[in-house]
Every structure is written in C-alpha cells, then in structure tokens.
C-alpha cells in the first residue's frame, strides 16, 4: 500500500453541530398537523360529524339505524344507559382539562397548616 494516504478509509471529520442548550430553529412547530392529517380531520368532520353523534347518544336521542338490505321500514335505535354514560365521558374529556396531582408544601418543605376563623376575632 502507498504511504501517501490515498487509500485510507477514515472519514473526514465533521464540523461540530449546534452546541447543547441552544434552541432548535426551523421546521414545523410542535403539534402542527401535516397536510394529510388536516385533510383527514376535515373530511371526518364534514362526512360523519362525530361530536354531533356523541351529543345525540349522550342525550339519549332516538336515531335511525342501518336498515337490512331490502327492508321497507326504518329501524330505530335508542342508546342504552351505559352507552350514554360512555358518550358523556368522552365529550367531557374534550372540554375539561386533565387533572394532575400536585404536591403542596409550606415554606422550606414543611407540611401545610390550615387555620379557619369561625367568626369572632
């Protein structure tokens, strides 16, 4: 082999990247849906309206069910109590924030003390 370094298999050194602690720049913001996801959500809302359906189930509204092939009469469906509760819980999760446990402590990590004044001074 030649000693001039022509046949070396070493990779050239990379330049150092962004130093640790520096914020990222560029790219899509976190939580921004891509075009496919946005189009899918828009179509589902236009075609099916899942929130309206859940509201109807939670209220216990009577709804037309898919008829048997060749049937001449509509069939109706009324949600059960369990189905209504499940629909209401699903809707509540959409409008209420998730509860998080928080540990409370007084100054210097001491336990909290509560003093209630019941009238008087």
Structural account:
There is one protein chain. By secondary structure, the chain is mainly alpha-helical. It has a domain of 59 residues. It has three helices and two strands. Strands 1-2 form a two-stranded antiparallel ribbon. Helix 2 packs across helix 3. The relative contact order is 0.07.
Outline of the structure:
With 121 residues, the chain is mostly helical. It is built from three helices and two strands. The chain has helices at 35-47, 50-59, 81-95, and strands spanning 63-65, 75-77.
Please supply descriptive tags for the structure shown above.
3 helices, two-stranded antiparallel sheet, 31% helix, 121 residues, mainly alpha
Number of helices: 3
In round numbers, the mean pLDDT is 81
First-to-last CA distance: 98 Å
Strand content: under 5%
Kindly report the spatial arrangement of strands forming the biggest sheet: 1-2
SSE order in H/E notation?
HHEEH
What is the chains' assembly state?
single chain
In one word, what is the shape? flat
Would you count the extended β strands for me?
2
Give the low-pLDDT segments.
none
SS-based class:
mainly alpha
How large, in whole angstroms, is the Cα Rg?
A: 31 Å
